[in-house]
Amino acid sequence: MVHRTPVLQSRLLNALSGAELYFKCENFQRMGAFKMRGAINAIAQLSAQQRAKGVVTHSSGNFAQAVALAASELGVPAYIVMPSSAPQVKKTAVIGYGGKVTVSEPTLEAREAMASKIQGETGATFLHPSNDIPVILGQGTAAIELLEDHPELEVVLTPVGGGGLLAGTALAAHYYGNSCKVYAGEPMEADDAYRSLRSGKIETNESTNTVADGLRTQLGDNNFPIIQQLVEDIIRVEEDEIVAAMRLIWERMKIIIEPSCAVPFAAVLKQPELFAGKRVGIVLSGGNVDLNELPF
Amino acid sequence: MVHRTPVLQSRLLNALSGAELYFKCENFQRMGAFKMRGAINAIAQLSAQQRAKGVVTHSSGNFAQAVALAASELGVPAYIVMPSSAPQVKKTAVIGYGGKVTVSEPTLEAREAMASKIQGETGATFLHPSNDIPVILGQGTAAIELLEDHPELEVVLTPVGGGGLLAGTALAAHYYGNSCKVYAGEPMEADDAYRSLRSGKIETNESTNTVADGLRTQLGDNNFPIIQQLVEDIIRVEEDEIVAAMRLIWERMKIIIEPSCAVPFAAVLKQPELFAGKRVGIVLSGGNVDLNELPF
After folding, report:
1. B residues 226-285 near A, CB within 8 Å?
2. I want to staple B193 with a disulfide (CB 3.0 to 4.6 A). Which of A3, A49, A183, B160 is the partner?
3. From B24, B35, B91, B181, active-site residue
């Protein structure tokens, strides 16, 4: 149902960062992102009765594709609410996977209201992109595989948007790592998670003007306590740093990653003193980028 | 000195082609292309006296980078003649690897004359990008690895430009394969190898107006007899077919390949009846593309 994705290294990026980097390539995951892991795990746990009525979610992109594909494989109807701002390539992919797409206004409120309405009409089970425990545990399996392959890792980094990947990775590092610390990278332009860690409560973004379109969402009440307890820190990066990191990975590693995916590597380049000489895992979260809308 | 590159598969591209495809990722090779293999093998066979005087070559790009990097690692001076038409990204990379670059007019005659002049002045050993036997044997090691990993392959494809990779692959399939046939893809706009196979002598191109900038060269007197004897056929593809195949690999496999590298996959899509239901290896030759000059 999901691929065991490869772990790649790059001498050039090691030299540039001063760290020994291990990139877990979830951009090669089915539907192009780690979100397939959480979607499969969540749907697999539904009862036959629940499966018959289907699942519903709202997502700006990758989770939408993940639920559509996972549901299709398990023979479950999938109702997907997508904001009008979602990249066309992602909408097309969701429809290609057999998802029933409804477009909503791009606000969180509008997305939630639309999903709620569909839930009421169909009896479908709502799947949250980042706050359901089965989803969080599913996302963590990327880091479990990474630590199985490289148990010597001292640090693992992920991006943080809604917090599902980060919380799942933190649990994985806690249970499977050998004193492995977890950091996240976050866009300065949508730094709610950074501020939440410092204030001790879930903060929101007034604006989310970032090229990292997968990281515009906020933390949830299930993943935030995990992140508070198990994540070392969150490193914020500027837009130009995200684009430069993305381009470096494209040019040097010859792999395609989406802007959100470049954020933790940008964080390593921004605070190299934290990672110098260390064995550092980076979860490359996804590769679903519109080739007609490249930021460089 | 060289990476053992991974072999990737794609369910989507299998479904699209009707074949079971195994992509040998030489785009992940050091300096971004298979040419590192031939360069290392050729330089490693020089005497201490030859090494002290250095090596000289002319190349439109990847072989230039390969010789510069291989020579640098072996402590050998490298004189590189590059045509003025070579992509800037490749010239910059050669200089970065420590190669001494001389720019020539883009014709084969001008490149050869310049290399000859440098050879006379320095006593450096000339390395031909595709016609020296040690280079041909080095290029063949990609297919040897591919067949070690997947001995069940029934067909292997490469692109054909100067013929070094194709001849090396044909030898590898002959000695290591299990009745494994070898085909090549070639741009219609530079179809000298296709015509050479049919006429029985080395043909030239009157023009080479193809996006596949690595495939504008012609066969040599060492590799042509090998190709004649051991290669099943050469399949020609149009420019739009090359660009579409390149884009499919970028979007579906999330890896970066250069236009020349897409040619054998374009050939599979063009003549699917030859490969339907078969286990088909494709050598993805390189990933050195200028992100500011994409053909889509």
Report:
1. 247, 250-251, 253-257
2. B160
3. B35
This complex has an ipTM of 0.90
Would the pTM count as exceeding 0.90? yes
List pLDDT tens digits, range A122-170: 999 999 999 999 999 999 999 999 999 999 999 999 999 999 999 999 9
**B293 vs B295: CA distance, rounded Å:** 6
Higher pLDDT, A189 or B290: A189
Chain B residues with CB under 8 Å of A256 CB are: 250, 254-256
Residue B35 annotated as catalytic: yes
Average pLDDT over residues B191-220: 95
Element (H, E) at B89: helix B88-96
Q: What is the mean pLDDT of residues B111-136?
A: 96
Tell me the count of A-B CB pairs closer than 8 A: 39
Which of A254, A287, A291 comes nearest B287 by C-beta? A254
Please report the domains of chain B, with CATH numbers, ordered by start residue: 7-33+134-293 (3.40.50.1100), 35-130 (3.40.50.1100)
By C-alpha distance, the chain B residue nearest A252 is B32
3-state SS class at A295: coil
DSSP strand pairing (A155-159 vs A125-126): unpaired
End-to-end CA distance of chain A: 34
Q: Are A154 and A180 in contact (CB under 8 A)?
A: yes
d(CA A6, CA A25): 6
Mean pLDDT (whole number) for B114-130: 96
d(CA A47, CA B288): 50
Q: pLDDT band at A62, cuts 50/70/90?
A: confident
Does pLDDT of B59 surpass 90?
A: no
Rounded to whole angstroms, how far apart are CA atoms B164 and A216?
A: 49
Give the ranges where A123-222 is alpha helix by DSSP (H): 133-139, 141-149, 164-176, 192-199
Whether pLDDT at B62 is above 90: no
Look up residue A280 and give its two tokens: 């550092």
What is the pLDDT averaged over residues B260-277?
Answer: 98
Report the C-alpha gap between A200 and A85 in whole angstroms: 31
For residue B7, the chain A residue with the least C-alpha distance is A6
Residues A55-81: what's their mean pLDDT?
93
Rounded to whole angstroms, the Cα distance separating B77 from B54 reads 4
Q: Which residues of chain A does B294 touch, with a Cβ-Cβ cutoff of 8 Å?
A: 291
Categorise residue B187: left if φ over 0, alpha if ψ from -120 to 50, beta otherwise.
beta
Q: Is B68 an interface residue toward A (CB < 8 Å)? A: no
How far, in Å, CA of B101 to CA of B230, rounded? 36
Q: In sequence order, what are the residues at sequence separation of 6 or more whose Cβ sits closer than 8 angstroms to the Cβ of residue B17?
A: B265, B268, B269, B272, B275, B280
* pLDDT band for position B46 (cuts 50, 70, 90): very high
Cα-Cα-Cα-Cα dihedral sign, residues B231, B235, B240, B241: negative
Q: Does A287 touch chain B (CB under 8 A)?
A: yes
> What's the CA angle centered on B219, arms B217 and B222, to 5 degrees?
140
Amino acid at A183: Y
